[in-house]
Amino acid sequence: MNKTLIKQIQAHAAAEFPRECCGVVIAESGRQKYVPCRNDASTPSEHFIINPEDLADAEDRGAIRVIVHSHPDTPAQPSMADRVSCELHEKPWAIISWPSGELFEFKPCGYQAPLIGRDYGHGLLDCYALCRDYYSREHGIELPNYPRRDGWWTTGESLYEKYYEEAGFYPVADLRKGDMILMQINANAPNHAGIYLGDGLLASVPDLHPAPRTFLHHRYNKKSSRDVYGGMWADYTVLILRHQKMPEER
Predict the structure, then answer these.
(1) Which residues sit opposite 70 in a β-bridge?
(2) Domain 3-106 has CATH 3.40.140.10
(3) Please, which pLDDT band fits residue 27 given cuts at 50, 70 and 90?
(4) pLDDT for res 177
(5) 237, β-bridge pairs
(6) Which of 44, 111, 122, 160 has the fewest C-beta atoms lying within 10 Å of its C-beta?
(7) Residue among 52, 56, 48, 42 nearest 21 (CA)
């Protein structure tokens, strides 16, 4: 990235500070240009969501080469969410730390967030994302990535109940390894999901030790974890789902 682009990105980061700035580098008329965009995140000092109209306008001008955002008062090193997003967008990313001005660039490299110990980021690294990754890595089952805005469970929506059948699940009365557990925690609809592990083992995490009656889940603003299923978690449970592609027990 040349000095002119870097200065433009730094100026945008300074103008938006202490909020995260965001934008894209495009190829327009044979030259790279930085296009600043609005940050639509509800907490813009913590993360960013590029305004879709600004992004569409930039794409109309030229092909997107790099996705850019700032880290106010923190180093330019990518977070776990940044690396996951970079893989999803399949584009190089650049992070500018402000006010230090440090720039870090990185590209998609096949990164996968760990199933246990991943950071939280709603819509990207949340309980449903963990379930999607579990089924993909452990069973080769690809689930749809439904859009979900933060706090949907407080506004009368019930996304799990709305989409589980379309995603290939059906309700069951018993509980066995690989089932999805839906829970309702201080909400009017199921708003938390986990995967029952039984013996606690994961083929994609070979260094785990057996642990009876455990489940995998990702609590709001916590790291994903493997916990014992029972007590309050069982009390919160409102539905047990099994995917139609899961093998039958023998």
Answers:
(1) 96
(2) yes
(3) very high
(4) 96
(5) 183
(6) 111
(7) 48
The rounded distance, in Å, linking the Cα atoms of 93 and 163 is: 32
End-to-end CA distance of the chain: 57
Where are the chain's structural domains? 3-106, 127-243
For domain 127-243, the CATH class is: alpha beta
For residue 184, report the phi and psi dihedrals to the nearest 5 degrees.
-120, 110
Q: Where are the alpha helices (DSSP H) in 143-219?
A: 159-163
Q: Is the peptide bond before 206 cis (omega within 30 degrees of 0)?
A: no
User: What percent of the chain shows pLDDT beyond 90?
Assistant: 91
**Residue 184, token pair as written in the block:** 């309702």
Is-same-fold flag (3-106; 127-243)? no
HSE-CB at 24 with a 13 A cutoff on CA atoms is 25
**Which pLDDT does position 154 carry in this prediction?**
87
The two structure tokens encoding residue 41: 């995140």
Q: Report residue 19: phi and psi, to 5°.
A: -85, 160
CA separation, residue 10 to residues 5, 7, 108, 140 (Å): 9, 5, 23, 43
Pair 81, 109: CB distance under 8 Å = no
Give dist(CA 141, CA 167) in Å, integer: 10
Q: What is the pLDDT of residues 89-147, one digit of tens each?
A: 999 999 999 999 999 999 999 999 999 999 999 999 999 999 999 999 999 999 999 98
3-state secondary structure of 136: helix
Give the catalytic positions in this structure: 127, 192, 217
pLDDT tens track for 145-160: 998 888 899 888 999 9
